[in-house]
Specification:
Blueprint (H helix, E strand, L loop, with lengths): L1 E5 L2 H7 L3 E7 L5 E2 L3 H12 L3 E7 L5 H10 L1 H4 L4 E5 L2 H8 L6 E3 L1 E4 L30 H4 L26 H11 L2
Parallel strand pairs: 1-3, 2-4, 2-5, 5-6
Antiparallel strand pairs: 1-7
Length: about 180
Amino acid sequence: MLVTKLKPLDEIFSLVQKKTVLICCEGCRDVHSPDDRAIATLRGLLFSRTDLSFVVTSYVCYREHLELLIQNNASIIDDADVILVLSCGAGVQTIADFVSCPVYSICDTISLPGYQGLTPSEFNCIGCESCHLNKTASICPVTSCVKGLVNGACGGAKNGMCEVDVSIECGWVRIFERVESRK
């Protein structure tokens, strides 16, 4: 089972900008996510603070499905200042790969043994319960860095490749490049 919990409301509100898109993933049927009442309350609070567009879909971690979702909602997504995502970390990372505006997770994924949902993408979420994606341009340092470093690069990368496995791009180089490209 995959379990997500909403981040504190003050943290969510600090991410809101003028034109905000909220994408809620309902893909993995074994996922326990915040109930409909919590989402309705959140929507109501966000509507009062921003120009909010709301998209409910399934399997945002599935690239082909996400590509269609973005095409079908291009007018609101292309115009967004920020996208807030209610899904596991794999979904947040996949969305961030498709758009040019900042993408933020509004929930944390809790690690549980057993089935962890459908993740057909190259991204992974280990359910660290304290998602780092909002601080690292929606690239997970825990799963993209071979060493799992969360406080920055180790300094051993050469030509953008990891010192531990030269066939893997350094996760922190990817993070730095995305931050620079969105300035």
